[in-house]
Amino acid sequence: MAAYITKQRRALLDYLAMHPDESLSAGDIAGALAGAGISVSAVYRNLAALEEEGRIRRVSRGGREAYYQFSDSQDCRDHLHLLCKSCGTTYHMDEEDAETLIRNLIRHEQFLVDRVDTVLYGTCEACQIRKRMEKNHG
Amino acid sequence: MAAYITKQRRALLDYLAMHPDESLSAGDIAGALAGAGISVSAVYRNLAALEEEGRIRRVSRGGREAYYQFSDSQDCRDHLHLLCKSCGTTYHMDEEDAETLIRNLIRHEQFLVDRVDTVLYGTCEACQIRKRMEKNHG
DNA sequence: CTAGTTGCAAAGAGTTTGCATGGCG
DNA sequence: CGCCATGCAAACTCTTTGCAACTAG
To answer: If you count Cβ atoms within 10 Å of the first and of the last residue's Cβ in chain B, which end, N or C, has fewer?
Structure first.
C-alpha cells in the first residue's frame, strides 16, 4: 500500500491534514474532492489503505455510514478520544484522565481498553451552550 | 409502537432477554428466530421500535453492520459499558470508575459524556487469556 | 371490527470489486 | 517499462419501505 504517491492520494492526504479533529464520511470526502478528479472508489481504497497503516481512524456516529478522522500525529496514537455527536468534532482526552481510566479498568475489571478504537460519545462545550440557547429561544 | 404484542415481538423479546450482555446483529437474530416464523423485516422493525423505546442499545463493532444489546434493566441505563471486540460480550463498568470518568471529563474538558451511547472497546479477561494461549501454542 | 403488524419483494444507501486503462518511479 | 492505482460500472451487504394480507385487542 502507498507504493506510489498519486495525485489522488496526495489530494486526499492534504484534505485530511486540513481537517484534523473532524470526522468525515467517505461521501463528504469524495464530494469535497470531486473537483480534484478523484473517484469514489479511489477514496475508499485510499481510506482503507490509510486505515490499515494506522494513519486514520474509522469511527461510527450511529448511522450506517463510517466516518474517518486523521490520526497521523503522535498525540493521536496515545490519547483516548471524545467525539461530539452534534458537530462531529474530536477532542483529545486529558492524558491523566485517560491513564486513570485505563488503570482502573484493568485493576477492577481486568478489561484491557483499546486506545485506538475507543471513542467516548457525548456533547462538547460549544454544543452544550448552543443547545441550551436553542431551548431557551424556542 | 408496541401497541400489540404479536407472537413475533414476543419471540424477539424472549430471545433478547435470554441473551443479555451479548451484542447481536439483526442477521444473528433473524437467523436464530427463523424457526419461530419471523421475517427479517419484522426483526428490523421491532429492533427499531425497541431502540426508540430505549429498551435496547445499538452499537457498532467496526464493520458495516449494527449490533444490538438488551438494556432493559435499571442497571444498564445507569452504567457505562465495556464491549469486548473479540467475543462481543458486554460488561458493566464499575460504577465508581464511571463516575470518576464522567466527573473528570466535565471538569477538565467541559465534555458531557452520553451514558447510553458510550461504549469502551477492548478485550475482556477471558479473551486476553485465550489470545495469549493462541500465541504461545500456535 | 379496525388499526397495528406481518411477509414478501423491490428499492436504497454505503461500500467493495473486476477489469481495462493510465501514470508513478 | 513494470507494476500499482485509477475510473467506471456492476455486484454486494445491510437496511428500509410499499403494499396487500393478517391478527391482536
So the answer is: C
